[in-house]
Amino acid sequence: MLKKRKLPSNKYSVTFTMPALEWVSQLYIVGDFNNWDEGATPLQKADDGSWSVKLTLDGEREYQYRYLDDNKVWHNDRAADAYMRNNFGTENSVVSLIAGETSKKRVEARKKKLL
Predict the structure, then answer these.
(1) Of the candidates 4, 43, 40, which has an alpha carbon nearest to the alpha carbon of residue 20?
(2) How far is CA 72 from the centre of its chain?
(3) What does the CA dihedral 111, 112, 113, 115 come to, rounded to 10 degrees?
């Protein structure tokens, strides 16, 4: 699940959440916002087994990301705004922080194209 909250100065607070994953003891979010550094941004595990992290990101852009677990397995976000093909033959999740109806339409068009 993605929770976005607009902040001053064209920033957004974005909470990324993943459900519980079997056999996973640590989960990281890896993407454009941390230069795809696999260990830079760990998620916190909640009592129910779900994972989350809150990041402050610049608005008016889209970010590609994925989750990486301690078993070196990549996961996409089922709640992503869209998905984009990557150079490895898979897809990255996308969070869009572009305000307005134009962004929503573009995200929905991208989702339909990938289905």
Answers:
(1) 43
(2) 17
(3) 90
Grouping H, G, I as helix, E, B as strand and the rest as coil, residue 18 is: strand
Q: Whole-angstrom distance between the N-terminal and C-terminal Cα of the chain?
A: 19
- In the chain, what's the furthest Cα-to-Cα distance? 40
Buried b (16+ CB within 10 A) or exposed e, 33-44: bbeeeeeebebe
Q: pTM for the complete prediction?
A: 0.85
Tokens 């795809």 belong to residue: 36
Check: CB of residue 9 under 8 Å from CB of residue 57.
no
In the numeric block, the tokens 């572009």 are attached to 98
**7-52: per-residue pLDDT in tens?**
999 999 999 999 999 999 999 999 999 999 999 999 999 999 999 9
- Find out whether 49 and 17 touch, Cβ atoms under 8 Å: no
